[in-house]
Amino acid sequence: MRVTVLGAGYIGSAMACVARRRGHDVRLWGTWLDDAIVDVCERGELHPRLKLSLDRIQILRSGRLAEALAGSELVVHAVNSDGAIPVMTRAAPSLPAVPVLSVTKGLLASPRTGQMERIDVVLAETLGRPLRFVHAGGPAKAMELARGVLTWMQFAGAAEDTGLCAGAMADETLLVGQTEDRTGAELCSALKNAYATGLGLWDGAIGPDAHNARAAAFTQAIVEMRTLVVAAGGRAETVHGPAGVGDLHVTAAAGRNRAFGERVGRGKAARIVAQEMAAAGELTEGYPAIAAAFRFAEERGIGPVPFLRALHEIIWESADVRSVLAGLRWAV
Amino acid sequence: MRVTVLGAGYIGSAMACVARRRGHDVRLWGTWLDDAIVDVCERGELHPRLKLSLDRIQILRSGRLAEALAGSELVVHAVNSDGAIPVMTRAAPSLPAVPVLSVTKGLLASPRTGQMERIDVVLAETLGRPLRFVHAGGPAKAMELARGVLTWMQFAGAAEDTGLCAGAMADETLLVGQTEDRTGAELCSALKNAYATGLGLWDGAIGPDAHNARAAAFTQAIVEMRTLVVAAGGRAETVHGPAGVGDLHVTAAAGRNRAFGERVGRGKAARIVAQEMAAAGELTEGYPAIAAAFRFAEERGIGPVPFLRALHEIIWESADVRSVLAGLRWAV
A164 by DSSP, 3-state: which? Predict the structure, then answer.
């Protein structure tokens, strides 16, 4: 099978490794931001982020997008959410009518309504036609995915398309669940970065002996993710599966969003922490994710989401972290 | 209000501190296994495990059980599951008809049927009458509960009784949810020790870079806990709240069950690890919890629970951890 991966960063390259493991003919296309990565890989060196060989994967520079897509039977979309519209707009003329398996997480402003929306909705509006969009949710750190550590993902889309994607990518180490609940799966993926930041706050504000508080916050995050998903037309069961519970677990257990929250929890302004982490080359997806999630809830009048509101106050309205957390009243 | 706590270990003493914080007249009764603890506290020293003062809490030695219970308006049952029948049998003649708020987690063999059962069912059989039993589930490490770190518990029982217990114990730092689903809450509390051990296996078998596998196992644990709870007549929503998701989160994040699993995951026989940990004074509740949970499922023909079955094979049937984990096929 011919598989084209768009985006040569961590997760795109990992998905290319998964496809190669399954014996497919794999092309990995790097965006204009990935040129430096592509240069290194073309010299036969290890992928500079994954530290793995991309041997037997054809790597294409940004100018060769049409060539990368020609004859493809499955497209993996692994560009970050900021790049989704520019990349897919350029890809559209060459894009075969095959499933687009997207590992991209986030919400985007709809050019039509101005409201925060799922990525597949915004792409369909932008391109003027729906894609055969399959969202891949679930806890999948790229390095482990590439190396074949047991991973359980959830593919969400039309049954025919999730079946094709699962058939192409699943193997002994990559378990793939399937659902038609694209709304639930995409929202879970977008929301978990926001809530994972929230779990980090307790580490900073209380210290390591905040197990009860973190577990309470984890539970409340699941409650609010379910509120948001169900109100938006998705299914509670998606929140209780790998895309929700599973992905929040891995995101909250470690990683940059948690670290971001922890530093804010210690009392430093979110804006400063985000600047410092950006300067150190660390993306803090939780920072914009909180704004996007809160806007999503507000625009639709969805609630109650007291934890998300508290996060927004702390991270985006410079409210004092300790007094907001102390005053937090969530539904019990 | 007069509150009597039965059991002067970690969690009983912490519940006594919570009741004292609410201004109640608190009596803390130690079982015959707690005599050494009571001696220390009676000399006015810190509680030897909690390292906190029990000032303004009346502490009674094991021989003074009737006195401890006289005039009590709320009884907190904080004896471990092995002690539940002997303690409540002795307490029964002096026990007022007030709610019994139980923080005890586990399953017991019914003297009537021989099957594994909820503690409140076995106590009612043993005493020949039902208690006003309220199970307290949720992520509540004793030290943090005593110190007033934010904690979210779930009280499960008859609405009148959970209301009385929540009214007596909840405060700004202890949030209390209420449910009539005693089955769900008790099973969650019993099952989480078993599954937390399972999450530890991956750390041992794969190492620290097993985030995806641990998150997959966390998700699968929730799936199987729901299967068991619903089949036993409980509610899925209980599993998705503090008693299930929340308590599994805190138990799996740290603690002895996880450590037990990790050492077994590295390839050492479970029996040996349990012996070593017992010799070091570390209780490994997950060890018997796996046997009890598996027996509970088998006796009722509940399934599929492939992760629990795999745990039982590894921990109780000396199966090779790596080959069992590699062969594990869970429902996706």
Answer: helix
